[in-house]
Protein backbone atom coordinates (compact mmCIF):
# COMPACT_ATOMS: atom_id res chain seq x y z
CA UNK A 1 0.00 0.00 0.00
CA UNK A 2 1.22 3.45 -0.88
CA UNK A 3 2.26 5.29 2.32
CA UNK A 4 0.80 8.50 0.91
CA UNK A 5 -2.62 6.84 0.67
CA UNK A 6 -2.70 6.36 4.45
CA UNK A 7 -1.95 9.99 5.24
CA UNK A 8 -4.72 12.11 6.69
CA UNK A 9 -3.04 15.49 6.34
CA UNK A 10 -0.70 17.30 3.98
CA UNK A 11 2.63 18.41 5.44
CA UNK A 12 1.40 22.00 5.76
CA UNK A 13 -1.66 20.88 7.75
CA UNK A 14 0.13 18.59 10.21
CA UNK A 15 1.02 21.26 12.81
CA UNK A 16 -2.57 22.50 13.01
CA UNK A 17 -3.96 18.95 13.17
CA UNK A 18 -1.40 18.01 15.85
CA UNK A 19 -2.34 21.06 17.91
CA UNK A 20 -6.06 20.32 17.60
CA UNK A 21 -5.55 16.67 18.55
CA UNK A 22 -3.56 17.74 21.61
CA UNK A 23 -6.27 20.16 22.69
CA UNK A 24 -8.93 17.46 22.28
CA UNK A 25 -6.83 15.09 24.44
CA UNK A 26 -6.50 17.73 27.15
CA UNK A 27 -10.25 18.32 27.13
CA UNK A 28 -10.95 14.57 27.32
CA UNK A 29 -8.59 14.24 30.29
CA UNK A 30 -10.29 17.13 32.07
CA UNK A 31 -13.70 15.53 31.55
CA UNK A 32 -12.46 12.17 32.85
CA UNK A 33 -11.04 13.80 35.99
CA UNK A 34 -14.25 15.74 36.54
CA UNK A 35 -16.23 12.51 36.30
CA UNK A 36 -13.92 10.77 38.78
CA UNK A 37 -14.20 13.73 41.16
CA UNK A 38 -18.00 13.71 40.88
CA UNK A 39 -17.98 10.03 41.81
CA UNK A 40 -15.83 10.77 44.87
CA UNK A 41 -12.77 9.05 43.41
CA UNK A 42 -10.48 11.98 42.56
CA UNK A 43 -6.90 10.66 42.38
CA UNK A 44 -5.59 14.20 42.92
CA UNK A 45 -7.18 14.40 46.39
CA UNK A 46 -5.25 11.56 48.06
CA UNK A 47 -2.69 12.28 50.77
CA UNK A 48 0.03 10.64 48.71
CA UNK A 49 -0.78 12.78 45.66
CA UNK A 50 -0.77 15.90 47.83
CA UNK A 51 2.65 15.06 49.26
CA UNK A 52 4.08 14.35 45.81
CA UNK A 53 2.61 17.59 44.46
CA UNK A 54 4.00 19.58 47.38
CA UNK A 55 7.47 18.06 46.96
CA UNK A 56 7.45 18.72 43.23
CA UNK A 57 6.31 22.33 43.73
CA UNK A 58 8.99 22.94 46.35
CA UNK A 59 11.65 21.57 44.00
CA UNK A 60 10.45 23.78 41.13
CA UNK A 61 10.53 26.84 43.38
CA UNK A 62 14.07 25.93 44.41
CA UNK A 63 15.12 25.62 40.75
CA UNK A 64 13.49 28.98 39.95
CA UNK A 65 15.31 30.70 42.84
CA UNK A 66 18.65 29.22 41.75
CA UNK A 67 18.02 30.35 38.19
CA UNK A 68 17.04 33.86 39.32
CA UNK A 69 20.28 34.26 41.28
CA UNK A 70 22.36 33.62 38.18
CA UNK A 71 20.06 35.09 35.54
CA UNK A 72 21.26 37.86 33.35
CA UNK A 73 18.84 40.66 32.70
CA UNK A 74 17.53 40.02 29.21
CA UNK A 75 14.87 41.81 27.25
CA UNK A 76 12.85 38.65 26.77
CA UNK A 77 9.31 38.42 28.04
CA UNK A 78 6.10 36.44 27.58
CA UNK A 79 5.25 38.29 24.36
CA UNK A 80 8.71 37.50 22.96
CA UNK A 81 8.29 33.79 23.73
CA UNK A 82 4.83 33.65 22.14
CA UNK A 83 5.99 35.60 19.08
CA UNK A 84 9.45 34.09 18.48
CA UNK A 85 9.41 30.56 19.91
CA UNK A 86 5.88 29.11 19.87
CA UNK A 87 5.34 29.33 16.07
CA UNK A 88 8.56 27.37 15.51
CA UNK A 89 7.50 24.52 17.80
CA UNK A 90 5.05 23.16 15.24
CA UNK A 91 7.89 21.29 13.55
CA UNK A 92 8.62 19.23 16.67
CA UNK A 93 6.80 16.35 18.31
CA UNK A 94 5.83 16.62 21.97
CA UNK A 95 8.38 13.96 22.88
CA UNK A 96 11.16 15.94 21.17
CA UNK A 97 10.20 19.10 23.04
CA UNK A 98 9.92 17.23 26.36
CA UNK A 99 13.31 15.58 25.88
CA UNK A 100 14.99 18.89 25.03
CA UNK A 101 13.42 20.87 27.87
CA UNK A 102 12.82 18.36 30.65
CA UNK A 103 9.17 19.41 30.85
CA UNK A 104 6.21 17.01 30.88
CA UNK A 105 4.38 16.05 27.71
CA UNK A 106 1.27 17.81 29.03
CA UNK A 107 3.21 21.03 29.66
CA UNK A 108 4.85 20.80 26.23
CA UNK A 109 1.45 20.35 24.61
CA UNK A 110 0.13 23.50 26.27
CA UNK A 111 3.28 25.42 25.38
CA UNK A 112 3.21 24.35 21.72
CA UNK A 113 -0.49 25.32 21.56
CA UNK A 114 0.38 28.77 22.95
CA UNK A 115 -1.75 28.19 26.07
CA UNK A 116 1.17 28.29 28.49
CA UNK A 117 4.53 30.02 28.67
CA UNK A 118 7.22 28.18 30.63
CA UNK A 119 9.41 29.78 33.28
CA UNK A 120 12.24 31.75 31.64
CA UNK A 121 14.80 29.27 33.01
CA UNK A 122 13.59 26.85 30.31
CA UNK A 123 13.88 29.30 27.43
CA UNK A 124 17.53 28.52 26.66
CA UNK A 125 16.60 24.85 26.26
CA UNK A 126 13.98 25.84 23.69
CA UNK A 127 16.51 28.03 21.88
CA UNK A 128 19.08 25.23 21.80
CA UNK A 129 16.50 22.79 20.45
CA UNK A 130 15.44 25.18 17.70
CA UNK A 131 19.02 26.12 16.81
CA UNK A 132 20.12 22.47 16.60
CA UNK A 133 17.30 21.43 14.30
CA UNK A 134 17.98 21.34 10.57
CA UNK A 135 14.21 21.76 10.07
CA UNK A 136 14.24 25.08 11.82
CA UNK A 137 15.51 27.29 9.02
CA UNK A 138 14.31 30.39 10.80
CA UNK A 139 16.76 31.35 13.52
CA UNK A 140 16.22 34.00 16.11
CA UNK A 141 18.49 36.00 18.33
CA UNK A 142 18.37 36.13 22.09
Number of strands: 0
- Low-pLDDT runs: 137-142
Range of helix content: 55-70%
Note the main sheet: none
User: What would the principal axes of the Cα set say about the shape?
Assistant: flat
N-to-C series of helices and strands:
HHHHHH
User: In angstroms, what separates the terminal alpha carbons?
Assistant: 46 Å
How many helical elements? Answer: 6
Strand content: under 5%
Integer average pLDDT: 83
Radius of gyration (CA) equals 18 Å
Structural domain count: 1
The secondary structure category is mainly alpha
Chart the SSEs and their pairings.
Blueprint: H1 14-38, H2 47-70, H3 78-85, H4 94-101, H5 105-112, H6 123-132
Q: What does the model show?
A:
This protein has 142 residues and is mostly helical. It has one domain. It contains six helices and no strands. It has helices spanning 14-38, 47-70, 78-85, 94-101, 105-112, 123-132. Helix 1 (14-38) crosses helix 5 (105-112) and helix 4 packs across helix 5 (105-112). The longest helix has 25 residues, at 14-38. It starts with 13 loop residues before the first helix and ends in a 10-residue tail after the last helix. The model is unreliable at 137-142 (pLDDT under 50).
